[in-house]
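During the no-cost extension, the postdoctoral fellow (Dr. R.K.) reprocessed legacy sequence entries with the updated structure-token encoder. One reprocessed record is reproduced below for audit purposes.
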Amino acid sequence: MARLRVLLLSLSLSFVVQSVVSISFYLPVRSRKCLREEIHKDVLVTGEYEIIEQPNTKTNLKITDSSGHILYVKEDATKGKFAFTTEDYDMFEVCFESKSPMGTGRVPDQQINLDMKHGVEAKNYEEIAKVEKLKPLEVELRRLEDLSESIVNDFAYMKKREEEMRDTNESTNTRVLYFSIFSMCCLIGLATWQVFYLRRFFKAKKLIE
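Re-encoded structure tokens follow.
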């Protein structure tokens, strides 16, 4: 029983740590800043942003994957939310671009607040509880179940990556071995040819019998 409590507490703490993902930064006028993150396949991603408005300045928001596919775009963004589900393991890019007409004088940097969540942390358990009529304890158990499943999936992905890296290393070692054997054969052949050539040369010069 005590071990179960420790496990539940550790999972709860892990969920709390993972759920706090918030970024705040300043964007200079007429500049572009991007944030990148790797996310697994079939993962729900949600986000909320707030941009402090400045006079004569517009900020565009665009979210793309490594192939350039646009997942979310908002021109003259000020405050809002976005959500999408990943189709494959990929690197996703969130870009903020500030635009302002030339000759507008000194414009202060814009403060941008971004809160992104994905996986378990992106799910709205309050809405799930209302739809499925779950009790608070059942909601917490559902949250822990989803978190444990996410951890298992992460370990499975890490295991798969380890297997791929091991296969790559073994393939590379095999190729290096074959190349080394080929190089040694070439060197031995070249050395043998040099010996016979020098022997014929010295015989032709009558330096040796």
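The helical segments are 2-19, 125-132, 136-204. The chain is about 45% helix and 30% strand. The remaining legacy entries will be reprocessed before the final report is submitted.
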